[in-house]
Amino acid sequence: MIKSLFARIDSKREELVSFTQELVRIPTINPPGEDYLKCAELLGNRLAKSGFSLLYERAKNTPGDSERYPRHNVIARKEGKTQSGPCVHFNGHLDVVVPGNGWTIDPFEGLVNDGKIYGRGTCDMKGGLATAVIAMEAILEEGIDFPGVIEISGTVDEETGGYGGVAFLAEKGVFSKPRVDHVIIPEPLNVDRVCLGHRGAWWAEVETFGRIAHGSMPFLGDSAIRHMSAFLELLESQLFPALEKKHTRMPVVPEGARKSSLNLQAVHGGEAESYDGLPSPCVADSCRLIMDRRFLIEEDIEEVKAEVTDLLDELADSRSNFRYQIRDIMEFLPTMTDADAPVVKAVSASILNILGKTPEHVISPGTYDQKHIARIGHLHDCIAYGPGILDLAHQPDEYIVIDDMVAAAKVMAASTLKLLGVNI
């Protein structure tokens, strides 16, 4: 059975390439969230030909959803010879980040060269989603009887928090028992790795306040930008050195991410960035800083926040006229699936058997949609496994290796049959 299945996957190599190209050629750039329905229908129409039933769900009233940019998701479901068995669910996000500068090719052409497919989203993660589709098609085309259910979903907004995608569907029970038992997310963590979860994340906005005055007489005002610079100095002198000392038992990759980290994502103060012509001579009465704090399973979220607020309060006590407010943008706790969980064992065994390598168990430095499956769906038999190379995500000239996709399809197919209880 397994040799025939793998031979069929090999025979579908060109289909795998062409379907990945079709997905990449739909520029689902997020933000703002372009062409979601078109991409969801491309995925759904293909799966319908293999006998999957389809459900399209628009995530109304979620961040970013509008009549111009509706948040459309698709869930495809194929039942086996009896529904009494488990459900294996493959979830892939449809959105991609902006191409950015530095490309030497068209980011949405899907160029094939030297055994690779190039384009925005090939690695993260349309190539992984296409790989899962081909793997499940091969099982069905082989006529393998299985108990239970296979599901594949194409969801939106992972790149901006996942609220209109997996979070929305998780609230509806799509990622909870008894509907689903095992979830595999084909994120680009490398073909010989099993990703157990991710670090935690806390995004916040700090705003400092001042008083507007004429720029030629700044002594009559109070600069919010100078107040913010005082806060930045404390971050540099106190918080950043403290974070360097925090290490984790989590097997985070790359090595540099096994520590706590803080990224100062954006600063906005004084003159609005949208002004035309010359700026007006004013003292800034507001300055806003966006912070992206990544934390470890050993850290408590309230302590993470207190590290920042304690510095702000120190300035409020010591610096004249220092006033601030802080606003949470989003927060997610770290997650790490047990290494003995069924989905981890099944995928690990398949990697060893097919690739001849003992798989590395890793943790992602950034969050992905596993966070919603764990916190909302309360389903913890979930991993990320996909053929893309982690370091290529969001980079110019992003690509995915075709041989890795074929190998990953075999791992996905064999793992699915193991989880469904099929003797292979």
Structural account:
The chain has about 425 residues and is of the alpha/beta class. Helix content is about 35%, strand content about 25%. β4 and β5 form a beta hairpin. The chain has helices at about 1-10, 15-25, 35-50, 120-140, 165-170, 225-245, 300-320, 340-355, 370-375, 400-420; strands at about 55-60, 70-80, 80-95, 110-115, 115-120, 145-155, 180-185, 195-200, 200-210, 260-270, 285-295, 325-330, 335, 360-365, 380-385, 400.
Question: Secondary-structure map with pairings?
Answer:
Elements (H helix, E strand, L loop, with lengths): L1 H10 L1 H12 L11 H13 L4 E6 L13 E8 L2 E12 L18 E2 L2 E3 L3 H20 L5 E9 L10 H6 L10 E4 L7 E6 L1 E10 L14 H21 L16 E9 L16 E10 L5 H18 L4 E10 L2 E2 L5 H14 L4 E5 L5 H6 L6 E3 L14 E3 H18 L5
Parallel strand pairs: 3-6, 3-7, 7-15, 8-14
Antiparallel strand pairs: 1-2, 2-6, 4-5, 5-16, 8-13, 9-11, 9-12, 10-11
Strand order of the largest sheet: 1-2-6-3-7-15
DSSP strand content = 15-25%
CATH topology of the largest domain: Aminopeptidase
Number of strands: 16
Largest sheet: 6 strands, mixed
What's the domain count? 2
CATH architecture field of the largest domain:
3-Layer(aba) Sandwich
Mean pLDDT: 97
Distance between the termini: 7 Å
Low-pLDDT segments: none
Radius of gyration: 24 Å
Order of helices and strands: HHHEEEEEHEHEEEHEEHEEHEHEEH
Number of helices: 10
Q: CATH superfamily assignment of the largest domain?
A: Zn peptidases
Overall outline: elongated
- What top-tier CATH class of the largest domain fits best? Alpha Beta
- Output the structural class: alpha/beta
Give the % helix: 25-40%
